Amino acid sequence: MTTPICDFVRAYAASGVSRLHMPGHKGRGALGCEVVDITEIAGADDLSCPDGIIAESEANATALFGSRHTFYSTGGSSQCVKAMLLLAYLYRPDGAGRRVIAARNAHKSFLHGCALLGLEPDWLYPAQPSPLCSCPVSPEALERALDRGEKPCAVYITSPDYLGGMQDVRALARAAHARGVPLLVDNAHGAYLKFLPQPLHPLDLGADMCCDSAHKTLAVLTGGAYLHVSADARGFEAGARKALAVFGSSSPSYLTLQSLDAMNARLSGTYRAELAACVAELGALKRRLAAAGLPVAPSDPLRLTLAAHEAGRTGFELAALLRAQGVECEYADRDALVMMLSPDTDGAARWRVLAALGGLERREPFAPLGAPPPGERAMTPREALLSPRESVAAGLSAGRIAACAAVSCPPAVPIAVMGERITPEAARLLTECGVSQVEAVIE
After folding, report:
1. From residue 299, how far is each of 159, 206, 362, 364, 406 by CA, in Å?
2. Measured between alpha carbons, how far is 167 from 157 in angstroms, rounded to an integer?
3. Torsion of CA 259, 264, 265, 268, to 10 degrees
């Protein structure tokens, strides 16, 4: 598969042209990558209205994912999430308003998008107690939400979630489509799902739009992402470019664009075999850890999640043991530990994980923290975001209206939602998660 962006930039770097244009480093600098860091010069195309090398590269990605169109983002999935919300409202079904039905474990970019666009989240909560990062949604629960109140402009879910939990996207898509409502999926952690022997990508399961953080699971530089419009969804692609531009920089990173472009060649070549081998090796590692008594939680195929609390340990303790063996995990909190692997994970990593955790002595399990109950809605997200605010100690924030998404990052799933009164349980959880200050509305 062609790599037009990479080819153009390499040729330009080798040309010896005097760079009397941005960036200011002029192709020289301490990092070594400056020589291939350019801007929208002649022939380099323009991400906001491409008709050259970027358009050709996006066409390659579109073919690989089987979408109606795959758009590049250099602002991560956060940019794409906001663009999806704008598109869902602009092209909303007849009779729909500003309501968006959403699983409660949404990333903070969803809340920011709702606040900026004046959309109203209508939260879905799990039927059983669940960690903050997870929110399993049944088709029946979604159907009940769809049948009450104003017709929503969209349904929004996260799959996989930060702990690797996966929704039944196919069944949820059927429920939404039966009522004429589009399904949007935050697939930030699942770009690779398209390339499994049996694809599990949201596009293959009925989503109308989804976003992938290519940089999270593919060999793409940080910030590289895709906004996919399904082949079966009509209308969204017409406005997608402008929607992305509303929330993105007019100076996209050409380093990131090159990495997205280069990934196309790999995806069309050896990647599927590399991925299959990696999934098999990770499966073997999971089985060895489970045989050693470690609580391996169900997750998507490239993630290793340990329910640390079931082993009587904190995720922080396990992360420290890994660090001592030369392994840095993706995420740890009191209850869980998350490791993300890919075909590019070094060969020593799996053995180091076994060395650190394989002989771990189990202790008395303890109860996980769980998500706090919803707070009273006192304002819309937009009203709260634009209100005068003050910083208060998280432990003393109960009863106050959250002015912004109160959250640690990662995982960037808000503990307290802007516009809601912070519950005592949420205030305690904020403290447990290391959040010291919260922005509260001045009433």
Report:
1. 11, 21, 22, 24, 26
2. 8
3. 150
Summarised one tens digit per residue, pLDDT across range 293-303 is 999 999 999 99
Give dist(CA 296, CA 310) in Å, integer: 10
Read off φ and ψ for residue 231, nearest 5 degrees.
-60, -25
d(CA 8, CA 10): 6
| 85-95 burial: b if 16+ Cβ within 10 Å, else e | bbbbbebbeee
Beta strands 69-73 and 225-229 are antiparallel
Which residue is associated with the tokens 């949007």?
184
Could you read off the pLDDT of 106-156 as tens digits, one per residue? 999 999 999 999 999 999 999 888 888 999 999 999 999 999 989 999 999
Taking residues 50-76, report their average pLDDT: 98
* Separation between Cα atoms, residue 226 and residue 294, nearest integer Å: 35
Which amino acid is it at 5? Answer: I
CB 366, CB 312: distance < 8 Å? yes
Go through the domains of the chain in sequence order and give each one's CATH number.
4-267 (3.40.640.10), 272-357 (3.90.1150.150), 381-441 (no CATH)
pLDDT at 409 over 70: no
Residues 6+ apart with CB under 8 A from 353: 285, 289, 304, 322, 325, 327, 339
d(CA 199, CA 206): 12
In the sheet that 337-340 helps form, which strands lie side by side, from edge to edge? Answer: 296-297, 303-306, 337-340, 331-332
Token match 């406005």: residue? Answer: 239
DSSP run (H or E) holding 338: strand 337-340
- Burial classification of residue 17, based on how many CB atoms lie within 10 Å of its CB (0-12 exposed, 13-18 middle, 19 or more buried): exposed
